[in-house]
Write a structure and sequence with these properties.
The chain is of the alpha+beta class. The protein is built from four helices and four strands. Helix content is about 45%, strand content about 20%. Strands 3-2-1-4 form a four-stranded mixed β-sheet, with helices on one face. The longest helix is centred in the first third of the chain and has 19 residues.
């Protein structure tokens, strides 16, 4: 079974490299990188020119944890996107490049994107 898991991870990293060839974060338009594990979701705003993370948020963060309690995973992801948009707008970031990080744009990943758009971010 371990071989199958390694293969899935390797394929995702391969897709991730393919996405990163085209999606680059700049100071005017940083990259919104999304990672999903089996249980949680993580978002980061990254400036690739300087190699710095401008802000980050996850479903483990206390600000988000109170809002997602008892909700289904896709709804949790949408709420995470909305909260990430609020954090970005506080830091004067309105334009971002969405990085799906090798994951298929479906389900929780798409929900984070729609929540971020709902919150006021432009892709």
């Amino acid at each position: 079974m371990a071989c199958k898991t390694i293969k899935k991870t390797d394929l995702r990293i391969r897709r991730q490299k393919s996405v990163r060839r085209t999606v680059r974060g700049t100071s005017e338009r940083p990259r919104l990188c999304v990672f999903r594990s089996g249980r949680h979701m993580y978002c980061q705003i990254i400036n690739d020119e300087t190699g710095t993370t401008l802000c980050s948020l996850s479903t483990l963060h206390s600000q988000v944890k109170a809002l997602i309690d008892g909700k289904k995973p896709v709804e949790q992801a949408r709420i995470l996107g909305v909260e990430m948009a609020k954090v970005c707008l506080e830091k004067s970031i309105a334009q971002v490049a969405f990085d799906r990080n090798g994951f298929i744009f479906h389900g929780r990943i798409a929900a984070v994107a729609s929540g971020a758009r709902e919150g006021g971010l432009n892709f």
